[in-house]
Design a protein that fits this description.
The protein is α/β, with parallel strands linked by helices and about 300 residues long. The protein has 7 helices and 7 strands, in the order E-H-E-H-E-H-E-H-E-H-H-E-H-E. Helix 4 runs parallel beside helix 6. This is NAD(P)-dependent oxidoreductase.
């Protein structure tokens, strides 16, 4: 892979305590999903909103991250995607971005590793020379039936991946961002509704909302906007690798729209927030969640 690094061995987070089989192991592969998510097939009407810009997208190999990478490419941006170890998925994202006529770099590794964060930023510095958009999208989640069974290892791992990596990558990337730059963080509807079986995950997503609001104020004088997107139930590889196989048929049907969303229904939020169309928006959260009212 262009700019790729060897994948470090990482500890396996504590598994779910319900004993039910998952269709996939974490972090999940898009090339093994049935049906596959919709992230690149639908027609996307681009308008050059990101022409000539450069972006880092964490978790860009599949799901929402891949859909963002493709939409950014169609809007004229070069992208660098990070991913854990899903090499086939990452190669497909690279192919689709390049098919859209833009450059795509990829780098494998654990964002919870401080040295890897620095490698990501150094690759962007070396190949792009600057950065216009940072999309903090990578995350993990693990179902636990009881609060008491969330072990310290899982709690720390979930926060390290979902929040600490986002915090530190934003710090590392900040010197590459200049006035007009944008940071976009992926939070979740669980930050607003909560989820009794994803308590540690939901806690990280709540932290991301507070982080987004605080950082937006801190960077306003520099002309750098900070916003977030809080997707609802979206059909991505994280879902079959998280939830029991017998629950997937009902996934997303508790929303007012009675269905899960697709990654390409979420990606336009990230295009908007990265573009000049959102020049007067910072500290805000967009909610592509199937009609759930969260008042957030």
């Amino acid at each position: 892979m262009p700019g790729g690094q060897p994948m470090p061995t990482t500890p396996t987070p504590q598994a779910s305590d319900d004993g039910k089989p998952r269709e996939q192991a974490q972090p999940g592969r898009q090339d093994r999903m049935e049906p596959p998510p919709e992230g690149e097939e639908r027609a996307y009407q681009a308008a050059g909103k990101l022409r000539g810009r450069c972006a880092i997208i964490t978790g860009g190999d599949s799901g929402i991250g891949r859909a963002i990478a493709i939409a950014y490419a169609k809007e004229g941006a070069d992208v660098l995607i990070t991913y854990l170890e899903e090499h086939e998925d990452a190669r497909e994202t690279v192919r689709l971005v390049e098919q859209a006529g833009r450059r795509c770099l990829s780098i494998a590794g654990d964002l919870g590793d401080e040295a890897h964060l620095q490698r990501v930023v150094e690759l962007a510095r070396k190949e792009f020379g600057r950065l216009d958009v940072l999309v903090n999208n990578a995350a993990e989640q693990h179902v636990m039936q009881t609060f008491e069974n969330i072990g310290r290892d899982q709690l720390e791992r979930t926060f390290r991946t979902n929040f600490f990596a986002m915090f530190r990558l934003s710090q590392e990337a900040l010197p590459l961002l200049s006035e007009g730059g944008s940071i976009i963080n992926t939070t979740s509807v669980t930050a607003y509704h909560g989820n009794p079986k994803l308590i540690d995950y939901s806690a990280t997503k709540g932290a991301i909302v507070a982080f987004t609001r605080s950082l937006s104020i801190a960077l306003a004088e520099r002309g750098i906007r900070v916003n977030a997107v809080a997707p609802g139930p979206i059909w991505t590889p994280l879902i079959p690798s998280t939830f029991p196989a017998d629950s997937l048929e009902s996934f997303g049907k508790n929303t007012p729209m009675k269905r899960p969303g697709q990654p390409d229904e979420v990606a336009p939020c990230y295009v908007f927030l990265a573009s000049d169309d959102a020049s007067y928006m910072s500290g805000q959260v967009l909610h592509p969640n199937g009609g759930q009212i969260v008042n957030g």
